[in-house]
Amino acid sequence: MTPRFNPTRRPERGVLGGLHPLMTVPPRPSPAAGAGLVRLGLLIIGFMLGMAAAHGQTRRSSLDAPIAPLRITERGGELGLRFDYLSETQRRDGGDEVELSNRAFQEYLIQRIGGYVYHPRFLEFRSRFEIGMMQQFIENSGLGGFAGGVEESSRSNSFIGGYDLYLHFLKEHPFSAMVFAGRDRRPVLQLFTDRQIVESERYGVVFNWKKDPFPMDLALTRTKLREFGFDSHSESDNTLLDYVVRHRLGRRMETELRYRLQDYQQSFTAENPLITIERETELQSHDLSLLNTIYLNEDRTSYLSSILRYFTQTGSQELATMQWHERLNLRHTPNFSTYYLASLLENEFSRTSVLTRRLEAGLDHRLYRSLDSHLDIHGRWIEFDESEETEIGVTGRLGYRKQTPWGYLTAGYGRTLDRVTRTGLSDRRPVIDEAVTLDDVAFTFLSQPAIIASSVQVTDATGVIIYLEGFDYELEERGNRLGIRRLATGNIDDGETVLVDYSVEFTSDLEYLADHQIFHVRYDFERFLEGLAVYYRWQDLTARDAPRVDDFSILEYTDWLAGLQYRWRWLTWSEEFERYESNFSSYDQLRSQIEGHHPLGRGIRLGWHAGTLLIDYRDEGLDNPYTNVVYGGLTLDGRIRPSGFWQIEARARKESGLSDEMLVGIAGKVGMIWRKLKLEAGARVEQRQRFESERDRMQVFLQVTREF
What we know:
Layout: H1 21-24, H2 37-51, E1 68-91, E2 97-118, E3 123-141, E4 153-169, E5 175-187, E6 195-209, E7 216-229, E8 232-249, E9 253-271, E10 276-295, E11 303-315, E12 319-333, E13 336-348, E14 353-367, E15 371-384, E16 387-403, E17 407-424, E18 428-437, E19 444-445, E20 457-459, E21 466-467, E22 473-478, E23 481-486, E24 497-505, E25 510-525, E26 532-544, E27 557-568, E28 571-582, E29 586-601, E30 604-617, E31 626-640, E32 644-657, E33 661-674, E34 677-690, E35 693-707
Antiparallel strand pairs: 1-2, 1-35, 2-3, 3-4, 4-5, 5-6, 6-7, 7-8, 8-9, 9-10, 10-11, 11-12, 12-13, 13-14, 14-15, 15-16, 16-17, 17-25, 18-24, 19-23, 20-21, 20-24, 22-23, 25-26, 26-27, 27-28, 28-29, 29-30, 30-31, 31-32, 32-33, 33-34, 34-35
């Protein structure tokens, strides 16, 4: 499958990585000659301001600043040396071993200038320019089983440059503008990720009109990223045009019109002993949306909100989206309200289209500040490939909370009954943009049963960056459900939320009643056993009147969980037991965890976590029907007097059973300023063993600068 925009969020980064960058990491590139007149003009302005630095004056408050044709309020520079070292050792079953290393030395000069033209309210500026040289020494050995048998060592000398420029015109005027440009290179000292170095180049202009009745913003930005990892390399170019206009009619109505034009290009390469891939992505999109809210009373608790959006995309994947959403909220009394909702969403791809319609009406009521109740009737109709799935039903919920002599009690019960009807000729149904949060400890299971594993596509939260199975994440089938987990040496961050698209097996001419129940209760002790909480959760999903109980596309399960949590000063201990039983798989899971943070004095802070995860699979046909995970982590940070800092992070994880993997890593950073001398250093060391393969990675940098 190919990438797709989710234009509701702006991409902030590309895929971070590089193709054996220890062999191929290039020096920081010099500015391209054809980068454009805008960037050239910004650089010319910056150098002209630098020539005027000799007339610098002392720093003043912008409000009291005198009028002057050109006034320098900030001036300084740095002379610096930097050393970077990267190495990786790979070992495989059979004795194959690869060693890669890259050493780089940099000498650079930085000039910083800040000030204003005429007055800070007219034009205020800040700038930084960097020039220097870099020497690289690359050594490789043992590539016979990995990279075509080519072994090489090389060295190179190159020019480096960087800059930051910021101009703010008429910042307190109804019409103001900002111009910015920048270019930098930074190491990535993050444990258990492939990326190691990121080079970025960005520039743009922003216009603001602040006066009513139509305040508006217009922004044009361009961002180029070159991202290097131990096994991957990415170059991306993202151009954005954003326009927003707002209107407010008293306190009764607010309207916002948004338009976004986006052009995204990416070249991505990944290579390791298990995977080799090259991918080119080109996406162009237009996104137009109108948001309107009408408030029906003075306290704005009753309102009508409307959303109308059209999105079209061409390039590597063609997509057109039409969305309409209407919601009416009515607050009848302080404790009683009703709502009415209608929406339509149509997605058209090159080979298929999905039309989803939804209607819902409901009420919410609160009794004596302790009992909340909810009741709604709803319907959803999904049309795709001459097929249709319909869900019509009702939902009821009760929530209770009560302060008792010993603590606080919360409980709730909810039940949803949906009549599900499937008709048509298609044998699969697409599911789009399911949000999932991933970590490297346990698998997260997708919501639908009977997922076709080959149809899974995982992207970042923007829908632009595509992640790769076997490199960034792994899949695991259990019965008729599919789980996903990040791989510790890919490009997905621990705890990152991703979007997942997939198709599920679709059985037509099927009708049944889906009965979903959930009950939960929790008690937090506030006397005698202060800090202790006990809780219980029970869920049950049943397909009543289903004609075929062995249908793989129907999910039935019972899931209950009991646990306790104890907090004492700076320590939190939790214990959970879960039993899951479905029509195709079942397991028991026990999870224990202890975590906390504590100041040690003299500005030192300690944080830690440790835990175990034990899973017993009660499915037939598994060679090792269990998973045992032991994990832990430690963080330390503090201050160095008079002006310095240090940070340390260590993590480890050992898994056995269905998978055999061990991860150990430590990363740290230290910085200190003494008079005009500044020292900064960092390191990352990690080891990964998975089945019969092993990897050792090391990254070190040392930087010394002197201000003048």
